[in-house]
User: Which sequence fits this backbone?
């Protein structure tokens, strides 16, 4: 995962510095570089869970959400440091993939949104999340006593691990995300969906931000998704029981 990429980057930089010795030093550096890179490539899947997830999911018949509707945008937050861990943890996973059953609902959500707000679109932050990455995330929140937010990978995982959940927001006609009161992955009570009127009353979020969340939930519910009380951005395409009984874990 992130450590895999970082290691290669660091070793490459160190080897580049060795080139100032020239001659046999240059040859030695290149040989060492290749050897270490090969070792990392061989060991990475075991050490960091790095695999070509894009190829695996494509082969399994999962759907790249950008192919559903040209309006749908993706900012895969875990492929960048722009997430609650502050690190990129997706390696070999560059697209937002969904199981076809969930993908069909997402396409419907975009159509409903377009009807309600012409020019507005869905912006996907996360979709299918393989179990090795889930395990890394679970251990990260475990250290911070926030496991409530990440499903336990050793207890059949969560719906993201089956391709049956999606994290997303809405962008306006200029491509700007609507204000929702908190950023994506803000693991605190301000992101809760069950007490938004109180959040408005206490000045934690504005009326406009609450209304934007209501718009997102309305659109997603009409398309067949369900919501959770802890995260305004998270939507499930089936129940936990159905995911376990009917769908296959991505591991
Ligand atoms: Zn989620």
Assistant:
């Amino acid at each position: 995962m992130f450590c895999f990429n970082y290691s290669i980057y660091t070793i490459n930089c160190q080897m580049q510095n060795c080139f100032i010795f020239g001659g046999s030093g240059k040859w030695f550096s290149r040989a060492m570089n290749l050897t270490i890179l090969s070792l990392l490539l061989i060991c990475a899947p075991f050490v960091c869970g790095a695999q070509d997830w894009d190829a695996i999911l494509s082969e399994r018949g999962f759907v790249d959400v950008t192919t559903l509707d040209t309006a749908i945008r993706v900012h895969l937050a875990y492929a960048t440091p722009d997430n609650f861990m502050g690190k990129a943890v997706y390696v070999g996973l560059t697209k937002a993939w969904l199981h076809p059953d969930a993908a069909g609902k997402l396409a419907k959500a975009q159509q409903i949104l377009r009807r309600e707000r012409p020019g507005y679109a869905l912006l996907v932050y996360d979709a299918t999340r393989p179990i090795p990455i889930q395990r890394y995330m679970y251990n990260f929140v475990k250290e911070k006593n926030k496991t409530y937010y990440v499903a336990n990978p050793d207890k059949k995982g969560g719906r993201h691990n089956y391709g049956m959940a999606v994290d997303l927001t809405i962008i306006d006609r200029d491509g700007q995300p609507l204000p929702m009161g908190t950023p994506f992955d803000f693991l605190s009570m301000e992101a809760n969906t069950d007490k938004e009127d109180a959040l408005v009353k206490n000045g934690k979020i504005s009326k406009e931000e609450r209304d934007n969340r209501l718009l997102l939930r309305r659109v997603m519910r009409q398309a067949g998704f369900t919501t959770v009380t802890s995260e305004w951005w998270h939507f499930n395409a089936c129940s936990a029981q159905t995911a376990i009984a009917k769908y296959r874990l991505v591991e």
